[in-house]
Each structure stands twice: as C-alpha cells, then as structure tokens.
C-alpha cells in the first residue's frame, strides 16, 4: 500500500464527512444560511427559506455523494497502490458531478420560493442603510437622486442598485 493511496483515501473520507454532514443538515432543515456550506447562489441566498428549500432538495444527493465517496475511499484503501488511488479519485469526481447536479435542482427549487419581507418592514430586500427612524419613502426618494447613496451601509443592498452588482444586467 502506497502513501499516496492512503493520503488520497483520507481526503476522500474527509470530503465524505463534510458532504454527508451538509446533506443531513440540509435534509433536516438545520443548515443555516452561510457563505461556506450548502447550495449557495443569488436565488438561494436571498432568504433563509430559499436557502432551506434548496438544501432540502439537494440533501439526498449530497448524502448519496458522501456514501459513494466513503465507499470509494474504503475500496481504494483495500485495493491500495496506483489502482486504489485511481479508484478513490474516480469516486470523488463522480461525487462532485452528483453534487453539481443536485445543487442545480436545489437552485431551481429556491427560485420558486416567493420573496420574504425584510426586517425593516419596507418590502422585499429594499430600503437599506440610514437610521431605522427614516421611512421607506425617504429612502426611495434618496435612492432616486443617487442610486449609490447607500452603498456599503447594509448587507442587503439597495433597491436602486438591484441587479447592478451581479451579471444579471450583463445578460439582459
């Protein structure tokens, strides 16, 4: 048994553990919106509900990918040598393809989730920045004069800048 095949198998087991944990947490609805784990893109990150729906939809595939990777890593250790290494790498590649496919399914599921109102009571993802005492009408009036007036003042962005920071406008 070569050192390389053992190292690759350990990497496989580590990936299987992460993918399995994310899949199980997603299935259970316990995976919180974050910037590191789970299915993440503009549609899934727009609300906690969309993130949960996407990860619930992708959860079974993530768990399946974790099982495939763990089995591949175990068989790779049993086989050893060059063929064991190739077997583990193949299991990882196939698992990554499965994760890509189920992530797409999760993104499609999140895209149909209706937008939620934000905490300010101003509507959907709007009225960022400024003090909490200001009204939404004031925020919208200020944004009409200078769409970038609230840049960097909150984490949710601006109604006036909606779509300007992503490639949505470039595709239009």
UniProtKB/TrEMBL annotation:
Alphabetic keyword roster: Membrane, Transmembrane, Transmembrane helix
Transmembrane segments: 6-29, 50-75, 81-102
Pfam families the record matches: SdpI
Domain of life from the UniProt record: Bacteria
Protein name, UniProt field: SdpI family protein
């Amino acid at each position: 048994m070569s050192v390389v095949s053992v190292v690759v198998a350990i990497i496989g087991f580590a990936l299987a553990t992460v993918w399995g944990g994310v899949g199980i947490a997603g299935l259970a609805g316990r995976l919180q919106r974050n910037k590191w784990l789970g299915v993440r893109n503009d549609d899934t990150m727009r609300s906690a509900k969309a993130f949960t729906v996407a990860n619930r939809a992708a959860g079974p595939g993530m768990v399946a990918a974790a099982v495939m990777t763990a089995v591949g890593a175990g068989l790779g250790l049993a086989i050893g040598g060059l063929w064991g290494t190739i077997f583990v790498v193949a299991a990882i590649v196939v698992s990554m393809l499965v994760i890509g496919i189920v992530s797409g399914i999760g993104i499609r599921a999140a895209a149909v989730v209706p937008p939620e109102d934000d905490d300010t009571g101003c509507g959907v993802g709007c009225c960022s920045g400024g003090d909490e005492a200001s009204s939404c009408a004031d925020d919208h009036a200020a944004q009409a004069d200078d769409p970038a007036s609230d840049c960097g003042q909150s984490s949710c962005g601006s109604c006036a800048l909606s779509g300007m920071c992503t490639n949505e406008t470039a595709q239009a």
